[in-house]
Design goal:
alpha+beta; GTP Cyclohydrolase I, domain 2; 4 helices
Amino acid sequence: MSEKLYGERAIEENKLQVFDNRNPERDYLVHFTCPEFTCLCPLSGFPDFATIYISYVPSRKCVELKSLKLYINSFRDQKIFHEDVSNLILKNLVELLEPSFLKVTADFTVRGNVHTVVEVHHAKKDFEPDCFLEEQIHNL
C-alpha cells in the first residue's frame, strides 16, 4: 500500500490557522496540553516523547485547534533537538498570532536517565497584565 492514508495527508498538507479573537477588550490566558508529542533524536534516530504545554494571551488572533493538533503531529518524523522543538513552536506561533504573551514548555520523557524540560517564552514589550493574569503567568 503506497498511497498515503488520510491522516498522513492531513498532517502533510496542514497549515496553522487562526480566527479572530472575539474578546479583545480583555486579556485572558489560553492553555493547551499536547500529551502525545513525538519526534526523532537527530543523532540516534530513536524516538523522543514529550508533553507540550502552550499558554498564551491572545491579541487579535487565536489558533484553531485542529490545525494546532496537526502541526504538533507533523514533528513525528522530524529529527530535531529538544531545545529546537520548543523554540520552533514558539517562533511559529508568535509569527502567526502576534500574541501579547506566549510560553511553550516541552516536558520530555526520561531517556538514558535524563529528564529534559525546555521552557521558552515571548512577551510584547508593552504587555502589562493585570494582577490576576500576572499571577497566572507567574505560576506557569
